[in-house]
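Sanity check

After download, print the first record. It should look like this:
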Amino acid sequence: MKTVLHKSDTRGHANHGWLDTHHTFSFANYYNEERMHFGALRVLNDDFVDGGMGFGKHPHDNMEIISIPLSGDLEHKDSMGNTTVIKQNDVQIMSAGTGVQHSEYNKNKGEKVNFFQLWIFPKVRDTEPRYDQKTFDPSERINKLQQIVSPVETDSGVTINQDAWLHLGNFEKDFSTNYAIKQKGNGVYVFVIEGDVTINNQKLNKRDGFGIWETDKFSITADSNSEILLIEVPMI
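Expected structure tokens:
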């Protein structure tokens, strides 16, 4: 078993006024050669965007881009013709493939929006761009792991062009469970949204990240009421 620990206060940070963001991995002006990616997980950004502000139209290609809003409403427009709003309990994926342009703005002027943006390297390059969005019942992740992303269209969650699975869990204090790796050779990056958890023997707090690989499973114990995001990816 191998592990890597990223405490919340060691993340890259940038405050652009309208955007307050923390980067778990190297991104934009934050560069750390020891934090380029975790397997196929390239980006994990924790963004707070002021009311009415956002990211103007910009291009992506050959990247799986996942947005998970925690609060507020985020408006998305893209060159595939999609205009949507995503909010808490929604999960959005944009499979950029051969190339797509999109913009993201805080839909509301009176409150911030907080969302996670993840980039995952694709399994197959130069595919046709694709968009998907689903709303998930938060009651289905109380003291259980709710699958929100998977590589199989008939499985639950939005579909990703990679052998990757994402789960959300909302655990009450002292709840304990195990996570079994779904595909041999994959690893899991655990990100604590709120609260305190222990993964095997490693204690984690709010916004800490912990990567674990070369194992078949690991234990999760909630040391307080907690929310976590599990990101299983190939260790490329």
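If your output differs, re-run the checksum step. Summary of this record's structure: The longest strand covers residues 41-49.
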